[in-house]
Amino acid sequence: MQKRPRFQRYFVFIFAAVVSVSLTVPTNPLGSYESLNAVLAIVGPKSISTLDYEEGVERYKNLSRFFPNYRKKGSLHSQVIDFLIDRAVVDNVADEESIQVNEKRIEAEIQKRMEAQGISDLEQFKKSVQSQFNLPYDVWLDDLPYQIKKGQLLQIKVSPPLPSEQEVQSWYNKNKAKVGNEFKFRELVFSPANGSIEEESRLFNELTEIRNKSLQDPSFFKLVASGPRNESRYRLNGGLVNYVPTFELYKTQPTTASVLAQVGGQGKFSEVFRDDRKRYCLVYIEGMRPTPLDAVRKGIQGFLFREKEQTSFEEWVVATRKNTSITIFDPIYIKEHNISNPEEKYNSD
């Protein structure tokens, strides 16, 4: 009997081993992967998968407090699906308008915002973002591409109306406490000759004595504030600062503005305090009144316009979504919204 060549025997053994292995490979991992990355919805040309949903849950929890309540319907699960659908709608229109947000565009936006705040250090900017939005910087950064697209679409697709004079007046009347007061005050400012404890203590005691005498005779304070030792830039006017809104004063003298707001009331003296330049100060309030509308008109107009921008954009998203082909496959969402045909177009009201 003729023996087979050795290479043929090896081929038979290898082939048999391959067949054996292929027949015993479990099929569950593939099905498991498909389940993990199942398509939950199709929004125009974009699909939303289970993996998108898992990533979206944490983003939605961080950002949902910025959304209006009427956009929060159903369970958390359905709210996240709606959130992802809305984002997909915005992405689709941005693509149609050739709005591209790449890494360079994001870097340019960060630089622009840093310059607007007068910040040159990135770490300081990160702290500012966290304080301003009460968000981790990474969460804010992940959402920045969407905010850039939103800003572009507001210019191209949305035309929010300017606030009317009646709206400005109404907001001012309802929010006088937020607008705050403006003060007419006289200030006395001394700088220590050195940083010793003795010098600091001497100045504090001297100003305390001036305050005590002025409580008995306010004209004495005016006399001292007009003297050559007063370092106030208003010394030639007897240290008198004419009516200034606290929010304006806060830009240049935040400590003094805070002290005035705490003291309040015409004819009152502050306690001795140190300002932002480590100088010892004393202020006397000669007048206090609500900040007039003309002084805050532009600020109110800007605030109301930003509100209108947000409202107009939300309305535009809703309208655009209604005109977008949307197919829902997610069983939880289908059940909550009573969708009879899983493959029918669905547009949330």
UniProtKB/TrEMBL annotation:
InterPro entries reported for this sequence: OMP_Chaperone_SurA (IPR050280), PPIase_dom_sf (IPR046357), PPIase_PpiC (IPR000297), Put_pepPro_cis-trans_isomerase (IPR026427), Trigger_fact/SurA_dom_sf (IPR027304)
Keywords noted in UniProt: Signal
Any one GO MF annotation of this record: peptidyl-prolyl cis-trans isomerase activity
Domain PpiC: 163-297
Parts of the chain that traverse the membrane: none
Pfam families per record: Rotamase_2 (PF13145), SurA_N_3 (PF13624)
The protein, known as: PpiC domain-containing protein
